[in-house]
Amino acid sequence: MIESAANPTAVFASYGLCSKGGWGASIPIDENGPVDIPLLLCKALVQVGGLYAVFGRFLSWRADLLDATCLGYLRQVQAEYPPIALSAVASIVRRELGPSGLDLAAGLEGPALWSTLSRTAYLSRFRGQLIVVQVARDCVGLEHFIEFEHAMRAVRHPATVDIVSSVVIAQFRQWVRNGESLAKEKSFLDVLGHHQGETLVAYPVPIPELSNSSVLCWLAVEGRTASQLLSQGDPEIAVLIASAILEQFYSLSMVDADLDPEAMIVDRNHRLHFRRLNNPIAVPASLVDNGIKYTSAVLAGNASVSAQTLIRLMVSRPPLDLEKQLIDEFSGVEPELKINRWFPQSAGAFESNWRALARLKPTRPLFLDCLHRNLVAAGYWNSDAVGAGAPVVDAIAEAQSPVVGRLIRTQFGMLLNKETAVEWLLGSGLLVFGAFREMNRMAEELRDNDLTVGVASMEPAQPPVGKNRLSGVVVLACLLCILLMSLFWGATAPAPWHTVLRFLAVGSLPAMFWAVWRIG
Length: 520
Fold this sequence. Notes:
The chain is of the alpha+beta class. The protein has helices spanning about 10-15, 35-50, 50-60, 70-75, 85-95, 100-105, 140-150, 165-180, 180-195, 225-230, 235-250, 285-300, 305-310, 320-330, 345-360, 365-385, 395-415, 420-450, 465-490, 495-520, and strands at about 110-115, 120-125, 130-135, 215-220, 225, 255, 265, 270-275, 280. The longest helix has about 30 residues, at about 420-450.
């Protein structure tokens, strides 16, 4: 575990954050003074180091808790975590991978490629290719969390009540624990590997024979980091980052809870790659649609739908008055003025919504806070790129269209997949069979009970079904057959027939709607 560099209680007391010092002496607190107390807390956390500095990392981009001054300070702090020694990593590789790991361990190169709170990675070579070798640190001990929480209770200044509340401290522990398991990271990467080439953003693909729950290896990718491109005013990088954030939520049902521009690189083909997946959090699949509606409503400026869908991301059956309360909170939050900085309108809207939600619901799902965290961070990175010379573009708004477009194409491609088509065909057959069975049951009841159904109406009787309507039914049945056959054989038919069948499937859908309209 990364140890603290100073006594936390003494440091907090020196900044005037405690009601009592370490030896029981009263510390005067000027609650009405001009001092920015939350900023002092952030500086104290960094000075103490260890788990306290990690808490500072957790607070970065937390616009629900901190203002722009504090966020600006925390983003400048470079967290330093001593790497696991190269010799120790080599021992882990040899122990976990057996004969396959001997050459890999011998080829490890220093210095460390990265060293984060939970991971250390080095470069090595395997079959002539440059690969990343990543191992996990030991988990943070329970005693360290208990000590941390005890020390944070000494922070008593009124301006820090929300920042060091029990809810935030509990969520911090959840955030740290979520990123500790290498096996969990591998499971995410394995799933993402099945979608390789289908996403706008590329992710590491573990090499099966060199990866397990203790070691992860994948091919290294060359390129320039997102942080470098942001500082150079690259016109595309802010939109690429925003696309990654939206695509993770929309298409992959996940959020990176510790998004870092140093962990993203852009290759020669201008494609964004994640060098590592810092801290992935799964999003319940049932909530993804509401998340898409929420972000779309915010970008469209629709406060009512924004409130409705934001609430449904937290509560499955919300009280009727909760939406109105949130809309009232929306109107009561003034957008924060960023001094000497252009800030995108979309990120400002997400920031204000997050603060309004925090007033109403202090306890929220971690994935929802991390989604807002990433969107606010994307706004600041967008602002950085513009400040460095990039054209003024709202990156989140620009990213929405390509991400949604890719999502639609992917879903439609799944429909044209043979296996999916078979499942859909089976489901449709069962539905039709059920309908006919129900109609047959009703007919038998009418026959057995000799029921007579009549309708009293002042309107003239409707004419019987004519030839036009009957022909419409026949046309609809033919179109349905064409659609089903196209879906069934389109994925496996040889060229050029598979293209023809796919066009037939696409064309049959609007034709079926037309036929239904004619019948009606």
